[in-house]
Specification:
The protein has 10 helices and 9 strands. With 334 residues, it is of the alpha/beta class. The strands form 2 sheets. Strands 5-4-3-6-7-8-9 form a 7-stranded parallel β-sheet, with helices on both faces. α3 crosses α10. The longest helix is centred in the middle third of the chain and has 29 residues. The N terminus is likely disordered. Bound molecules: nicotinamide-adenine-dinucleotide.
């Protein structure tokens, strides 16, 4: 892959610009859709010219498609909303149900249904799939359905994750295994499902949601932190494996974000037993270790950076690890 193929073209080269913005993806998607038996391209009988179904771009992601795991709420939903506002069709893939070995409630079927209608209200298409990132078959079926219905898969946000806290030598085996299976193996399975279509398109953007705890050890979140360190290794390795196919893969590492993963009784009782209240925890973080005393991020703050790693400005960047952590990254080794 030459440097020029990643570069945004100027107005003097409209052909190349069209290829980079939609055409290359559209052509490859049409080929893939044809292989899958999908009528992705229409034949104009009067001219014999094959018309691509992609609309002319009117905003940055118009006509593109983003597949987001854990998209029913929180950071995943915020990513869906940001990309939808910029024109992308969305696939929300979420377990939408609780897991016995996760100690706080996950999204509900109602959350998933509400997320879908909110995204559709933005004027794009949305598919909502109740699925588990531990289930390769469901992921593969879901990617095939995405290509059947949207003709392509441009963006993958590897976001689904669960947290886990406590005394290391007291963790039940089943809980340890669940965190690893979702946060790390689930990320591998999600990526494996999407790579064949991205490779055949010779285009794609992958963003993985790691954590500040993927950059630092943490005695209370030891297994969670390990999965988030591992995810960065996997993201960098995916970047290397897919660079020659014009697929970028970057990770983002948030500090505290106001979501139900952080604001729940299980986490708050563990990190602040004397006052298990989210605002109190964040105030203490501001006072004690946030260089920028800005409180918790909102999910949209993370989503804007995810969108940046899906857009033209970052087309030549891969393998990056991007901290969004109230400035705590300034304490990390370079
Ligand atoms: N909130 C924070 O402070 C914070 C900080 C750093 C990183 N993160 C990471 O951000 C990501 C999103 O977390 P969030 O804060 O939005 O949490 P959240 O709990 O609000 O959202 C996570 C979503 O993933 C879904 N999910 C969980 N397990 C799944 C599975 N096996 N298959 C499919 N979907 C599943 C849940 O139903 C939920 O909708 C996670 O990977 C998390 O580790 C969060």
């Amino acid at each position: 892959m030459s440097r020029d193929q990643h570069r945004s073209s100027g107005p003097s080269d409209p052909t190349r610009r069209k290829l980079l913005s939609t055409g290359a993806i559209g052509v490859a998607a049409a080929a893939t859709a044809a292989a899958l038996g999908t009528p992705a391209a229409a034949q104009d009988n009067s001219t014999g010219v094959t018309a691509q179904p992609s609309p002319e771009p009117t905003s940055e992601f118009t006509g593109q498609c983003a597949f987001i795991t854990g998209g029913a709420r929180g950071i995943g939903y915020a990513c869906a909303e940001e990309l939808a506002k910029a024109g992308a069709n969305i696939v929300l893939y979420d377990i939408a149900g609780n897991i016995d070995t996760v100690n706080y409630p996950l999204a509900t079927e109602q959350d998933l249904a509400t997320a879908k209608s909110n995204i559709e209200a933005l004027g794009v298409k949305c598919i909502a799939i109740k699925g588990d990132v531990r289930d390769s078959t469901k992921l593969e079926e879901s990617v095939a359905r995405t290509v059947r219905e949207f003709g392509r898969l441009d963006i993958l946000v590897v976001n689904a994750g669960v947290t886990h806290v406590g005394v290391l030598d007291e963790f039940p085996d089943e809980e340890v295994q669940t965190v690893i299976d979702i946060n790390l193996t689930g990320a591998v399975k999600t990526t494996q499902a999407a790579l064949p279509i991205m490779r055949s398109q010779n285009a794609g953007r992958i963003v993985m949601i790691s954590s500040l705890l993927g950059r630092l050890g943490n005695g209370d979140f030891s297994v969670y932190a390990s999965t988030k360190w591992g995810l960065i290794g996997f993201a960098k390795s995916t970047a290397l494996a897919m660079a020659k196919h014009n697929v970028t893969c970057n990770s983002v590492c948030p500090g505290w974000v106001r979501t139900k993963l952080a604001d729940n009784d299980y986490i708050l009782n563990a990190v602040s037993p004397e006052n298990p209240n989210f605002e109190a925890v964040i105030e203490a973080a501001d006072a004690n270790y946030h260089p920028l005393p800005i409180g918790a991020y909102e999910p949209v703050d993370i989503a804007r950076v995810v969108k940046m790693f899906c857009g033209q400005a970052t087309a030549m960047i891969t393998g990056e690890v991007f901290d969004i952590s109230q400035g705590q990254n300034a304490r990390l080794n370079a």
